[in-house]
Amino acid sequence: MTEAPPLKACPAWGKLQAHFVRIGRVHLRELFARDADRGRRLALEAEGLYLDYSKNRVDDEALRLLVELARESRLGERIDAMFAGQPINVTEGRAVLHTALRVPPGRRVPVGGRDVGPEVHAVLERMSAFAERVRCGRHLGYTGRAIRNVVNIGIGGSDLGPVMAYEALRFYSDRELRFAFVSNVDGTDFAEAVGGLAPAETLFIVSSKTFTTVETMTNARTARQWLLAGLGVDAGNQAEARRAVAAHFVAVSTSVEKVTEFGIDPANMFGFWDWVGGRYSMSSAIGLSTMIAIGPAAFREMLAGFHAMDEHFRSAPFERNMPVLMGLLTVWYVNFFGVGAVAVLPYDQYLRRFPAYLQQLTMESNGKSVTLDGRRVDYATGPVYFGEPGTNGQHSFYQLLHQGTALIPCDFIGFRRSLNPLPGHHDLLTANLFAQSAALAFGKTADEARAEGTPPALVEHRVFEGNRPSNTLLADALTPAVLGKLVALYEHNVFTQGAIWRINSFDQYGVELGKVLAGRILPDLDPGRTPDPTHDGSTARLIEIYRSKESS
Ligand code: F6P
Fold first, then answer.
1. Has this prediction a pTM greater than 0.85?
2. Looking at ligand 1, which atom is closest to the CA of residue 216?
């Protein structure tokens, strides 16, 4: 892979700067007026997803230059390197191969010269057999009762993917089973998740790539105590405790040693590999809870959806490549318009956790200030991602999207068919979706406000300046395959952004300092100890106040 030149040294960067001066302030009203066909022309269909990107502040030249920037940034070579299993996660010396998790059986997947395809499919087979056993009531707990409750314990990528997918695919899930997700180390999360569950019918999936994450290990230990106490098993009776844990605990991890150390039999472990990043792991064994919920066949449909988008990303020319275009448009706004946030607005209640899922995917990936070769960037990188399902967001933060001072590009996501077609609902929902992107783009002028009879004193308040960009993604219905395509679309969108910014989208050193400091602070929360005198003044005082809770 030849190294890309520094971003600002790319000829296309300078050309984009010059072009921004020409196009940056042109209103979307004018862009649409100039080209009657814009709504059709600036759109793309791929793998059953329809992307309307016509409401972006670009003309053909801007799009051409953005693609030129992608070429000069060697995006194609980076994509090839990722799919070829090269160690593109340079800081950790690892390949980045979540795409290998969804390759159909029989295809070679080389990592460091080894074909990992058979291993991937062997895990999928084991997951399928286990999921079927639970779904059919054949996986029995310690007392011989069938499992009815599945609790995933994990955090970050070991939680957000499973929660999001469970919510997104709930329509397809087995309603006889109850699912809960515990992530926060706050005891409330565990207490509320297991409240009302019968231990004899509860299965815990301890999901952790490393099996060292303190939140997950703390929750897993609490779960073990809760289980043994609930089953009336004496924790000191090691043989019985082991039998109970074996029936009620499975692990998903890359570390057999750590899983064994915790007391879970490796026979009850589903593995994955260090070339799967936590936030890219929902199509690995981390998706076990999803598979139990929707069944192995539907899970494979989801994987096929992921794979279809992977292949599109890998092979479509940049001009017609959905994740590439979305990534480049984000770069355009972040680096030339000074945008700091992107809203993702799914018009489907089942996607209510999709924005939360994307927060980790996007911000843990591209929240970086140092290039691959360790130099501080001299341009902005990853924006904040946030969102809520429509129409709830409309009655909350859309005010700022329409009339605030910040420019926030939006991704609207909608479906032609509802999975719950109650009379009068879906058309109304969809009308709102289309109306919002139109209102953002075209706004309302002072003349239009006056013509509506707005009192003069209110005219300025009623003006919508418009020119606020958005993408609209449409699919037929929210199926497992469509969910896979959507997630892969954002994974590769993030990849594209990271490649342009020359950053490593696959490490997350930024989460470490806080963890280390928490380790130093924890012992000092014990009032019996003399606190470490080297805490900073604010932390020392906060500790003092916390410790005084005993006397208050
Ligand atoms: O927040 C840091 C992080 O490493 C994430 O990248 C990861 O998804 C999460 O912690 C959980 O890690 P693990 O699966 O190893 O418990």
1. yes
2. 16
